[in-house]
Design brief:
Length: 319
C-alpha cells in the first residue's frame, strides 16, 4: 500500500512498519525534496510509479484542458500501451487510428528529464545441458551444468555491469538464473547506445559461448539472442523541433530541462521506428522497479503543467 510523507523534513523515511528504510545516506537526492509530499512504497513491493505516474499525469492534463477551453490547442491524441517493460508494448499500436505527426511518452525519471536517446537492447539466454549421474560414481561421466553456468558468468567482464556503468556506457546484466545438475539457464540483457558497440556485445556473447562449448565438447551450450528495441536518436534528430517544443514547455512551466540519454527503454523508441517520432518526458519518480521507489507529488504536478504548456506551445508553433 503506498504511503504519503507530507511536508518531508529530511532524514530517513520508514517504509510501512519500518522493516525497510529509504535512507538519506543511500539516496542523498532526497534533500532536494524538503518541504514536498513524497509518495513511497510500504517497503514490501515496488510503488508502480513506472508508469502509473505517467498515466495519472496525462489524464490530469487532459482533465485540465477540458476544464479550460480557452487554452489554445490543436487535435490531441492520447494512447496507452501495455508490456513496455519487455519491449513489446508498441508492437500492435494502431498507428492507422492515431494520426498524430509526432508524440511524447511520459515515462521518464526525475523532474526535468527530456530524452531522445535510449539503449539499443537485446536479451540473451544461455542454456547449458550437462549429464547427471549419481555423485558417488560421477568421475569421468558427470557434467554439472551449474558449474558450466557459473564459469561462464564468472568470465564475463565484471566492470561492464549496471552497477559499474553510467552515462553512455553499455553493459551485460545477468537478470535471472536457474539450474540443476542436468540443465541450467542464464538470462542476460545487453544494452549499448552505440550501434557498433551493441553489435560487438552480441558478437562477444556468441564468441564466449563458442569458446566454452569447445572447452567442454560433451556438454551442450545453446545461445538465443533476441533484439528488443533500438536507439531512437536517429529517428528523432530529423525532427528536432519536437525536442525544442518540449524544452520550451518545461521552461514555461518553470522546470529546468535535463536532456540526457535514457539508460533503459521506452515505447517511444518502438513508435519512432514505426514512423511516429516520440521523445520521452519526465514523470518525476526515482528508484523505479524496487521497494525504495518514490515520487514527489510536486514533480507530478510539474509534469502536468509541462504537458499543458506543450499543448499550448504546439498550437502556437503550428500557427
Amino acid at each position: 500500500v503506498p504511503q504519503i510523507i507530507e511536508n518531508y523534513q529530511g532524514g530517513d523515511i520508514c517504509l510501512g512498519k519500518g522493516d525497510e528504510v529509504l535512507a538519506i545516506r543511500d539516496y542523498r537526492f532526497l534533500k532536494n525534496y524538503l518541504g514536498q509530499d513524497l509518495i513511497t512504497t510500504d517497503g514490501t513491493t515496488l510503488l508502480g510509479a513506472d508508469d502509473k505516474a505517467g498515466i495519472a499525469e496525462i489524464l490530469t492534463a487532459i482533465d485540465h484542458l477540458q476544464a479550460h477551453p480557452e487554452i489554445p490547442r490543436g487535435d490531441i491524441w492520447v494512447g496507452f500501451t501495455p508490456d513496455e517493460e519487455i519491449g513489446r508494448g508498441a508492437n500492435l499500436f494502431p498507428l492507422d487510428r492515431f494520426p498524430a505527426k509526432w508524440a511524447y511518452t511520459v515515462d521518464g525519471g526525475e523532474l526535468g528529464e527530456l530524452e531522445y536517446e535510449n539503449f539499443n537492447a537485446a536479451s540473451a539466454t544461455v542454456h547449458f545441458i550437462g549429464n547427471n549421474v549419481h555423485p558417488g560414481t560421477a568421475k569421468g561421466s558427470m557434467i554439472n551444468s551449474q558449474t558450466l553456468a557459473a564459469r561462464f558468468h564468472a568470465a564475463m567482464p565484471a566492470e561492464q555491469t549496471p552497477e559499474c556503468t553510467d552515462g553512455y556506457e553499455g553493459f551485460f546484466h545477468l537478470a535471472q538464473m536457474s539450474g540443476t545438475v542436468e540443465e541450467s539457464t542464464l538470462h542476460y540483457i545487453i544494452r549499448d547506445f552505440d550501434d557498433e558497440h551493441f553489435a560487438a556485445r552480441k558478437a562477444e556473447m556468441q564468441s564466449r559461448v563458442a569458446a566454452l562449448q569447445a572447452e567442454y565438447p560433451k556438454a551442450r551450450i545453446e545461445l538465443t539472442l533476441t533484439d528488443s528495441y533500438r536507439n531512437m536518436r536517429s529517428q528523432i534528430e530529423p525532427h528536432m523541433h519536437i525536442v525544442e517544443l518540449a524544452k520550451a514547455a518545461m521552461e514555461a512551466a518553470d522546470v529546468v530541462p535535463k536532456i540526457k540519454p535514457i539508460r533503459g527503454g521506452t515505447d517511444g523508441a518502438r513508435l519512432s521506428f514505426m514512423g511516429l517520432p516520440c521523445p520521452n518526458l519526465f514523470t518525476g519518480g526515482h528508484n523505479f522497479h524496487g521497494k525504495h521507489e518514490f515520487i514527489p507529488l510536486q514533480s507530478m504536478e510539474k509534469s502536468v503543467a509541462t504537458l499543458v504548456e506543450l499543448v499550448r506551445l504546439t498550437a502556437a508553433w503550428r500557427g
